[in-house]
Design brief:
The protein is mainly α and 227 residues long. The protein has one domain (31-226): Four Helix Bundle (Hemerythrin (Met), subunit A) (Up-down Bundle). The chain is 82% helix and 0% strand. The protein has helices at 13-51, 56-79, 92-120, 128-152, 157-226. The protein starts with 12 loop residues before the first helix and ends with a helix. It is an enzyme of class 7 (translocase). GO terms for molecular function: metal ion binding; transmembrane ascorbate ferrireductase activity; transmembrane monodehydroascorbate reductase activity. Its EC number is 7.2.1.3. It is found in: Membrane.
Length: 227
C-alpha cells in the first residue's frame, strides 16, 4: 500500500515545532529571570540607602531613580514582549496604554530624582557616577519627548515605524546608561558599607537585569524594522 503525497507531512514540520517550542521556553525563562533580577536590584538599592544615615537628597534620588528606571521604565519595555507573564493575556492596545503610562511616569520620576541630586551635590560631575547619571538623564529626556511625539502622531501610519524605532533606541540608551550609573553607585558606595562580595553580587544582578531588559527591547526593535 502506498501513501499519497497529499497525506504526508513535510519532513521539517516536527523540527520546526521543536525549534518553536524551544524558542518559546527560552524567552519565557529569560523574562522570568529578568523579573527576578529587577526585583533583587530594586530591593538591594532601596535597602542600601536605608541601612545608614544617608542625606535626604540621596534617599529621594535613589527612591525616584530606582522607581523610575528599574521598576517602571524596565517594566514598560517588558510589557510589550509577548512572553511577559503579567501582560500575556492583554490585548495589544491595552499593552500600549500600559507601556505609555509606565514609560512617561518612570521618565518623569527618574529625571526628577537626578535633578534633586544635581542641585544638592556641587561635586556631582566630578565622579563617574554623576557624569553617567547626567548622560542617562539626557537620554531619558529625549526618549520621553520621542515617546510623546510618537503618541501624538500615531494616526499617521507612514511615520509610525520610524518614530517607534527612534523611541525604542533612545529608551534602550537611557536604560543602559541608567544601569551603568547604578553599577557605578554600587561600586563607589555599596562596597564601602557591605564589602566587595555584596557589591559584586549587586553589580552582577544589575548586569543580568539590563541584559534581560535589552533582549526584550532589541526584539521589539527588530520586529518593527523587518515588519
Amino acid at each position: 500500500m502506498t501513501v499519497s503525497n497529499e497525506n504526508r507531512l513535510p519532513e521539517n514540520v516536527g523540527q520546526n515545532n521543536i525549534d518553536q517550542s524551544l524558542s518559546t521556553f527560552l524567552m519565557n525563562l529569560t523574562n522570568t529571570l529578568t523579573q527576578f533580577f529587577l526585583g533583587a536590584v530594586a530591593f538591594s538599592a532601596i535597602y542600601f540607602v536605608n541601612i545608614f544615615q544617608a542625606s535626604s537628597s540621596l534617599k529621594q534620588h535613589v527612591y525616584l531613580c530606582v522607581t523610575g528606571y528599574i521598576i517602571l521604565m524596565s517594566q514598560a519595555i517588558l510589557s510589550l514582549n509577548p512572553y511577559t507573564s503579567w501582560t500575556k493575556t492583554l490585548k495589544h492596545a491595552d499593552k500600549k496604554i500600559i507601556h505609555w503610562v509606565m514609560q512617561i511616569t518612570g521618565s518623569v520620576l527618574a529625571i526628577a530624582g537626578s535633578i534633586i541630586r544635581i542641585i544638592d551635590v556641587q561635586t556631582n560631575f566630578t565622579t563617574a557616577h554623576g557624569i553617567v547619571g547626567l548622560v542617562a538623564m539626557i537620554f531619558t529626556f529625549f526618549s520621553l519627548v520621542s515617546g510623546l511625539v510618537n503618541l501624538i502622531y500615531m494616526q499617521f501610519r507612514n511615520h509610525i515605524n520610524l518614530t517607534k524605532i527612534v523611541h525604542s533606541v533612545l529608551g534602550s540608551l537611557a536604560i543602559s546608561t541608567a544601569y551603568i550609573c547604578l553599577c557605578l553607585g554600587f561600586h563607589d558606595l555599596y562596597r564601602n558599607i557591605f564589602g566587595d562580595k555584596n557589591a559584586n553580587i549587586s553589580i552582577v544582578l544589575a548586569a543580568f537585569a539590563l541584559i534581560g531588559t535589552l533582549t526584550s527591547a532589541c526584539t521589539n526593535i527588530f520586529r518593527r524594522i523587518f515588519s
